[in-house]
């Protein structure tokens, strides 16, 4: 009977990374027993909780012991270390294998979430795989003598739908093929499976696989975070006495980073999903979703196992013959909220999958039993023929041949394991000798130590610099052979003279030492950082006499890139990362800095691929909004963009970070075909290096509008600055207030207080006169420009007509605007905001910006209407529309004024009431106030808006006068305290009545406004019919 079990799912929360610490990240994850909760950093009250089989808190409560392992700080710590993870998960895999079940352990999560740390480990802090292999052989040694155990080990990588054997020194073009067998299922044809009889042998094989993976990552430009690594251990138990064999296949899978398409994919790109890099992970998600729906009773017609290499190999692990565990690794940082939430949802679907695991019988042992049974039958037949005495020589000979063939086949099957094991031992001994030789050389010579983006692949390769001269490059004749982007046949020469090492670059080769490009012979010091070509990074380890006990782990990949950025003048300080308020780093700016250094090597690689493929493109990193601000002068959110320029045509494109990363993977796919010697010609629409020509944003200028609030003319000559604060051009622009007939205002028309404009109509013109010294046109005179701006509440920007081939183009475009009844918001906009004027660059073949006024409310004279209610701004205004709208605005304005006046009176009455209560307290304590005491000046009602009518004002004044007179009478009767109390109570009742009247007025105001809007909509609907 099969064992029906759900996939077991565990979640592990890692500590903050250095990047997250630098960015001041907050923890958004909490773990309680088996529940994991995540809090939305943008909406702290929004918390989602997920329940899994296991949840591990590895975020805090740990320290590093003397052996370099992370351990719990004490009994009160919740920290879950590597050993605890193994006991719950790895031991479960081993137990299943001992019982004869297939077992699978999957590690899922975004890049940098701790998948590889949990699976492989780091240094002395070993992960599940090495601990499990060691425990397996420990258990084998303690078993009975009448059992035989066979362990084989294989290690492969899946990248871009190609299978790479990590234990084979020869790479097969196009990768290994995945085939299907009726009994075996899907398998990798030609995959090297190494017999092992000790953990030390597996440890060396893992080192060998990692070394091959690192070499491939460098030479083939493969990004390890985008590849899946699969370790397979075939474990066979042969019970000699009972002639029973149990066989288990253990799959240990470190999946590629699960970044969503939005953050690192192809959103907004015309080439969507154009590469196979993400295919396996996408198809795995589809398989899991289909199986999850099937588990809850939904009808599923097809499960797409065959749609990718990964899902083919994991068919038995998901919904098949396997006991499966998935560990979901997550980041606790708020900056990774979306990715972490996506991982938790993925894990929640996975736990619904049902597997049907069975104890496996070995086909080979079954064949042996069948052969033995057939031999027994043959022997019986031979004995029968002999006893009968018949002359059947021919039949006897045939039976004897069959018997001999079966015996040979049986012996071959039984001997194969021993011979394979012996062959593996010889190979292991050769590798061990090479490792011993390498260690001796490390103690004698200086060497280069590779540094990789993936910490698991750093420090794997060592290139020794022996005495004399050692050439380095792609040529096999060099002492040090390197493959990779930008590596020439002869890249550089190292000279080692009496323990003093120097590097000399060859012509046109790229050599960078400590972030600075070098072109002449340069002496090296211990722990110098060297970059060869586009991005082959190495740490120089000096001769033994120069070495110290300094921790080499600090010189990681990010250290190299930060140093390179600093040498180029790019730093956190340049981004303005320090807040003026508290002096602490601005997290958003630090995040941009880390994005910048992360993309630096990718941009260098893209430029190198373009050069080798003869695409003539140059890629350059830029920080958008580095020196830009919004209309109120506040800094805009900074983000990374990539500027792309064609070296010959001078055409320019600007790509977002997401678009560039997607294109980079497409470029890698094309470049791999180039390395394989294939035809790399592609149609233009499918070329990742090509894009249609587009309009480019060059820069902007701020025109402050405060003068318009005083009806003063503004004549401005200002710089148009690009993202980096550099001048792109100078623009001459006038903002001229005018009358309704277009007459420009003079000094006599100026207002002293902008509030005088409230409720009135204001007209003005924006006159763009000329642009001077346009750098865009100086670089290429065949280009053009357009200028655009968006004023206040306009639904779209207003653009000038295109001007081509003129460095100092005259624009001479006037646009008239009108606000029929000026509102408070509009006045506030004029006094506190700037008009942002944008300069756009046109290129030959691009689509010009639409300079029509479609979508704006425009009068028959061509005046654009601003400061209009949204409900009334959804259609083109007819000839008599201004008068209708003006009446509506006036009514709304009067209602606003009534409400404001009532609120002022209410505030004054409340102050009077408070004052009277204080006076009563004084009277109660026997302290009498002076007869001539005057009310405080704050009783006076401050009129922020003029009253609606003189009649309403007189009525309110009469009420106010009566209040004062009655209060005066009460004060004159000093001895009659009771009378004063009665007066105060009467005033309180009147105040309450007035409050109710105010609320009623406000309600009436809302109803009137709603009625006006309703009527206007009916009018619009009627006019359309």
Give structural notes:
This protein is of the alpha+beta class and 1025 residues long. It folds into 5 domains: 3-261 and 268-357, Kinesin motor domain (Kinesin, 3-Layer(aba) Sandwich); 362-443, no CATH class; 444-569, Tumour Suppressor Smad4; 574-686, no CATH class; 696-865, Immunoglobulin-like (Sandwich). The chain has 20 helices and 44 strands. The two termini are 74 Å apart. Residues 6-353 form the Kinesin motor domain.
Structural class: alpha+beta
What's the count of strands? 44
User: How much strand content do the residues show?
Assistant: 15-25%
Any idea what the shape is? globular
Summed over residues and divided by their number, the pLDDT gives a mean of: 82
Largest sheet: 9 strands, mixed
In the CATH hierarchy, the third-tier topology of the largest domain is known as Kinesin
Q: Output the CATH homologous superfamily of the largest domain.
A: Kinesin motor domain
Assembly of the depicted chains: single chain
Helix % is 25-40%
- Counted up, domains total 5
> What is the top-level CATH class of the largest domain?
Alpha Beta
Overview features:
1025 residues, alpha+beta, Kinesin, Tumour Suppressor Smad4, nine-stranded mixed β-sheet, six-stranded antiparallel β-sheet, 44 strands, 36% helix, 24% strand, globular, transport, coiled coil, mitochondrion
Compact summary:
The chain has 1025 residues and is of the alpha+beta class. Strands 2, 6, 9, 12, 13, 16, 17, 18 and 19 form a nine-stranded mixed sheet that branches. Strands 22-21-31-30-27-28 form a six-stranded antiparallel sheet, with helices on one face.
């Amino acid at each position: 009977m099969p064992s029906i079990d759900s996939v077991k799912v565990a979640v592990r929360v890692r500590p903050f990374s250095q990047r997250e610490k630098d960015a001041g990240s907050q923890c958004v994850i909490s773990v309680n027993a088996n529940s994991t909760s995540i809090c939305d950093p943008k909406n702290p009250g929004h918390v989602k909780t997920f329940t899994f089989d296991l949840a591990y808190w590895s975020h805090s409560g740990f320290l590093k012991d003397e052996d370099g392992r992370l351990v719990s700080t004490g009994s009160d710590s919740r920290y879950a270390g590597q050993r605890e993870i193994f006991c719950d998960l790895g031991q479960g895999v081993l137990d299943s294998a001992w019982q004869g079940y297939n077992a699978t352990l999957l590690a899922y999560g975004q890049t940098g979430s701790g998948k590889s740390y949990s699976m492989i480990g780091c240094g002395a802090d070993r992960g599940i795989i090495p601990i499990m292999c060691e425990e397996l052989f420990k258990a084998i040694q303690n078993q009975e003598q009448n059992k035989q155990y066979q362990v084989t080990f294989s290690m492969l990588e899946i990248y871009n739908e190609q299978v790479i054997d990590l234990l084979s020194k020869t790479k097969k073009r196009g990768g290994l093929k995945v085939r299907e067998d009726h009994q075996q299922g899907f398998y990798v044809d030609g995959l090297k499976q190494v017999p092992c009889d000790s953990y030390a042998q597996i440890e060396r094989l893992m080192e060998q696989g990692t070394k091959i993976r690192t070499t491939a990552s460098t030479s083939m430009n493969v990004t390890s975070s985008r590849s899946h690594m699969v370790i397979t251990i075939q474990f066979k138990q042969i019970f000699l006495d009972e002639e029973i064999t149990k066989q288990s296949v253990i799959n240990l899978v470190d999946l590629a980073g699960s970044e969503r398409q939005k953050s690192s994919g192809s959103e907004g790109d015309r080439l969507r999903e154009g590469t196979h890099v993400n295919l396996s992970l996408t198809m795995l998600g589809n398989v899991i979703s289909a199986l999850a729906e099937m588990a809850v009773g939904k009808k599923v017609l097809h499960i797409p196992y065959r749609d990718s290499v990964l899902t083919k190999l994991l068919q038995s692990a998901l919904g098949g013959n396997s006991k499966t565990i998935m560990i979901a690794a997550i980041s606790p940082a708020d900056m990774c909220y979306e990715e972490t939430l996506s991982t938790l949802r993925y894990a929640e679907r996975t736990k619904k999958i049902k597997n049907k695991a069975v104890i496996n019988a070995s086909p080979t042992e079954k064949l042996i039993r069948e052969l033995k049974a057939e031999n027994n039958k043959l022997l019986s037949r031979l004995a029968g023929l002999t006893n009968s005495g018949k002359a059947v020589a021919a039949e006897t000979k045939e039976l004897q041949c069959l018997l001999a063939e079966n015996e040979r086949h049986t012996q071959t099957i039984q001997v194969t394991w021993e011979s394979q094991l012996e062959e593996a031992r010889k190979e292991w001994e050769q590798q061990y000798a090479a490792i011993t030789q390498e260690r001796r050389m490390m103690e004698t010579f200086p060497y280069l130590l590779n540094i990789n983006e993936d910490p698991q692949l750093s420090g794997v390769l060592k290139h020794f610099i022996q005495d004399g001269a050692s050439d380095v490059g792609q040529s096999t004749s060099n002492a040090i052979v390197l493959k990779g982007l930008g590596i020439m046949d002869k890249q550089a020469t190292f000279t080692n003279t009496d323990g003093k090492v120097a590097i000399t670059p060859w012509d046109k080769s790229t050599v960078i030492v400590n972030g600075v490009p070098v072109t002449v012979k340069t002496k090296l010091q211990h722990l110098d950082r060297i970059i060869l070509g586009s991005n082959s990074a190495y740490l120089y380890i000096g001769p033994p006499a120069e070495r110290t006990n300094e921790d080499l782990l600090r010189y990681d990949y990010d250290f190299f890139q930060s140093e390179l950025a600093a040498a180029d003048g790019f730093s956190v300080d340049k981004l303005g990362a320090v807040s003026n308020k508290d002096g602490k780093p601005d997290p958003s700016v630090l995040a941009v800095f880390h994005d910048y250094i992360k993309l630096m090597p990718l941009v260098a690689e893209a430029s190198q691929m373009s050069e080798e493929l003869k695409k003539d493109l140059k890629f350059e990193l830029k920080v958008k909004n580095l020196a830009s601000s919004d209309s109120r002068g506040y800094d805009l959110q900074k983000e990374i963009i990539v500027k792309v320029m064609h070296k010959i045509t001078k055409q320019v494109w600007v790509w977002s970070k997401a678009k560039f990363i997607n294109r980079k993977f497409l470029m890698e796919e094309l470049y791999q075909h180039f390395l394989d010697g294939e035809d790399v010609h592609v149609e233009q629409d499918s070329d990742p290096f090509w894009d249609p020509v587009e309009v480019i944003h060059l820069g902007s200028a701020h025109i402050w509008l405060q003068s318009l609030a005083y009806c003063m003319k503004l004549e401005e000559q200002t710089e148009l600055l690009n993202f980096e604060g550099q001048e792109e051009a100078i623009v001459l622009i006038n903002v001229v207030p005018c009358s309704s007939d277009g007459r420009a205002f003079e000094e006599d028309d100026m207002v002293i207080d902008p509030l005088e404009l409230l409720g009135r109509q204001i007209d003005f013109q924006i006159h763009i006169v000329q642009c001077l010294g346009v750098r865009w046109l100086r670089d290429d005179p065949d280009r053009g420009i357009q200028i655009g701006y968006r004023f206040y509440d306009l639904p779209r920007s207003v653009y000038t007509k295109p001007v081509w081939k003129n460095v100092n183009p005259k624009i001479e475009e006037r646009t008239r605007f009108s606000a029929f009844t000026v509102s408070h918001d509009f006045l506030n906009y004029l006094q506190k905001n700037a008009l942002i004027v944008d300069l756009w660059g046109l290129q030959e073949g691009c689509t010009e910006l639409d300079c029509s006024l479609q979508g704006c409310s425009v009068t028959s004279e061509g005046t654009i209407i601003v400061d209009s209610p949204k409900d009334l701004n959804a259609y083109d205004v007819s000839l008599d529309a201004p008068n209708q709208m003006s009446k509506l605005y006036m009514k709304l304005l009067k209602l606003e004024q009534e409400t404001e006046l009532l609120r002022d009176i209410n505030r004054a009455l409340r102050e009077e009431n408070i004052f009277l209560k204080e006076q009563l307290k004084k009277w109660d304590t026997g302290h009498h106030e002076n007869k001539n005491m005057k009310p405080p000046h704050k009783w006076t009602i401050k009129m922020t808006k003029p009253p609606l009518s003189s009649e309403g004002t007189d009525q309110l004044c009469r009420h106010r006068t009566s209040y004062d007179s009655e209060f005066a009478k009460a004060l004159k009767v000093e001895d009659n305290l009771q009378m004063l109390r009665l007066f105060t109570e009467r005033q309180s009742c009147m105040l309450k009545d007035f409050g109710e009247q105010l609320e009623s007025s406000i309600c009436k105001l809302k109803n009137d406004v709603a009625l006006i809007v309703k009527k206007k909509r009916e009018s619009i609907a009627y006019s359309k019919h």
